[in-house]
């Protein structure tokens, strides 16, 4: 079943990321939420009295809701909404990009 596969994948990803943070002595909690992502994330921030939320720049969406310079993708609508409405600090994690070796000096 697709929903079960997605749930297993989400939980596996979260478990891995929590382990990485724990190896660096950073206490963290990972949650897989259901429902409207904007409202679910904001509600959970309040429920947990979170200090920091780490969020990706977009989630399978093409919407660009913040102005960006030519040739660059902006934030997706969920990231944008959470960034503007969260009651805690929000870190938007950039996607890993390939950098030409001559630029990595």
From TrEMBL:
This is UspA domain-containing protein. InterPro entries: Rossmann-like_a/b/a_fold, UspA. It comes from Rhizoclosmatium globosum. Residues 23-94 form the UspA domain. It holds the Pfam family Usp.
């Amino acid at each position: 079943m697709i929903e079960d596969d997605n749930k297993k994948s989400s939980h596996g990803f979260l478990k891995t990321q929590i382990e990485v943070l724990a190896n660096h002595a950073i206490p963290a909690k990972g949650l897989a939420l259901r429902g409207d992502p904007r409202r679910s994330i904001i509600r959970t921030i309040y429920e947990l009295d979170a200090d920091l939320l780490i969020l990706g720049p977009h989630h399978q969406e093409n919407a660009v809701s913040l102005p960006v310079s030519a040739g660059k993708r902006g934030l997706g609508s969920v990231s944008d909404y959470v960034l503007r409405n969260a009651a805690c600090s929000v870190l938007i994690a950039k996607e890993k990009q390939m950098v030409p070796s001559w630029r990595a000096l």
